[in-house]
Amino acid sequence: MLETPPRRGSETRDRILEIAEAAVLAKGFASTSIEELIAAVGITKSGFFYHFKDKGELAKAMLLRYLKRDKALLDDMFSRADELNEDPLHGFLVGLKMFAEMMSALPEVHPGCLAASFCYQDQLFNREIRELNTAGMLAWRTRFRERLDRIERRYPPRQDVDLDAMADMISTLVEGGLILGRALNDVTILPRQVLLYRDFVRSVFAPSG
Amino acid sequence: MLETPPRRGSETRDRILEIAEAAVLAKGFASTSIEELIAAVGITKSGFFYHFKDKGELAKAMLLRYLKRDKALLDDMFSRADELNEDPLHGFLVGLKMFAEMMSALPEVHPGCLAASFCYQDQLFNREIRELNTAGMLAWRTRFRERLDRIERRYPPRQDVDLDAMADMISTLVEGGLILGRALNDVTILPRQVLLYRDFVRSVFAPSG
DNA sequence: TGTACATCAGTGAACGCGCGTTCACTGATGTAC
DNA sequence: TGTACATCAGTGAACGCGCGTTCACTGATGTAC
């Protein structure tokens, strides 16, 4: 008959996290029950508690996994864009275009951002988890602020600009775009917002003409 | 001693909705218990069920209340801006400035947007509620798209612009700005995003100079 | 003005179900000697 | 190469609590005649 495959704990753990993420993005953390997760994974409740000492540990592991994947994805994309382009402005513009294309290449409507979901339920979590979330958002600001600084040095902007706000704007548009995309069931919203941001960056820094 | 004030059902109902909104924005709908609401309002559980036949009815009433307030606020603000200004572009720019000022006048960190909160838990709600939410978002798009059309007719933009995306951009920035503001505990984020949007609109339509 | 009835805005007690958590136990695999 | 022990990745049964919902009832106010 069917041979039972060897049990590898880390795989099971990953499957739990994977399934939990989809469920949390659809219903929120509180209404995602351990019961439904183990039913989907095919273990018992005690099996779950072998991997996570309580539900809070699950939340933390989910967020860490999400932030890690997120960072890896963006690091990869913008470093590829930089390789293609020496100039900081053009590198950024290429990176944004790649970003927009990746967003629209998603099969269906993007499932959403776990950080935003956690943010709208933050009273459920302890300080550690909330701080992880804050740090994740700050990392985006820092990442884009550095790029904008490099661009500004080479291309002095025509008018005064709030560079911190401009760095935050990309996260803002992504978070907002995911919400609108979901509410209106329209995958094109997010990539189009990113392209609009790209236009804005270009119009601020690019030499007129 | 204390005279018991006359019982007015609609007042009690409003207080339930008010308290529920704050709780849902902090913890999500599923973890906001009827028990805690009635404790805060000072009635019994059966009193709650006199006003709402079940928890789903509470959700619907909350969303309706939120959308109504939202609409009234924006209608008021932009119509005041229009009165001050005949020109569609300047009227819009003034309205955006007023909007940004209102956002930064909020006492503490903005509590968030109920529509976004519902959106990240939409599997909890029935189709009617989800459709209300969608319609609310579409109303914003329509509202701003009309303004942009009027502006475009008088001020032909230099480059091609995606006017639907530009109309959606304001909702996107508000939704995203609320999330960032909350995660980073910084009330200035949202108004600064609105001002950046204002700069963008001006740079697209305003005659160069 | 008095009375009968209806409606409003609740009370109080009970319900069953699902949830997160605990605890004692287990069978397969890995490691030391 | 064999054996003893440790660790890994779970099982199975039980728990108590909180939750949403129901039902019969009530006391104050409003309305018709």
Describe this structure in words.
The structure is a homodimer of 209-residue chains. With 209 residues, the first copy, chain A, is mainly α. Chain A has 2 domains: 1-53, Arc Repressor Mutant, subunit A (Orthogonal Bundle), CATH 1.10.10.60; 69-205, Tetracycline Repressor, domain 2 (Orthogonal Bundle). Chain A contains 9 helices and no strands. In chain A, helix 4 packs across helix 5, helix 7 (127-154) packs across helix 8 (163-183) and helix 8 packs antiparallel against helix 9 (189-205). The longest helix of chain A is centred in the N-terminal third of the chain and has 30 residues, at 55-84. Chain A is elongated, with a radius of gyration of 20 Å. Chains A and B meet through helix 1, helix 6, helix 7, helix 8 and helix 9 of A and helix 1, helix 6, helix 7, helix 8 and helix 9 of B. The structure holds a DNA duplex (33 and 33 nucleotides).
Give me the oligomer status. homodimer
Helix content of chain A: over 70%
* Number of beta-strand segments of chain A: 0
CATH architecture of the largest domain in chain A: Orthogonal Bundle
Compute the separation of the termini of chain A in Å: 72 Å
Overall body shape of chain A: elongated
* Structural classification of chain A: mainly alpha
Task: Provide a count of the helices of chain A.
Answer: 9
Strand content of chain A: under 5%
Number of domains of chain A: 2
Question: Could you say what the CATH topology of the largest domain in chain A is called?
Answer: Tetracycline Repressor, domain 2
For the biggest sheet of chain A, the summary is: none
Radius of gyration computed on alpha carbons of chain A: 20 Å
- What is the CATH C level class of the largest domain in chain A, in words? Mainly Alpha
Main interface: chain pair and counts: A-B, 52 and 52 residues
Overall pLDDT of chain A, averaged? Answer: 93
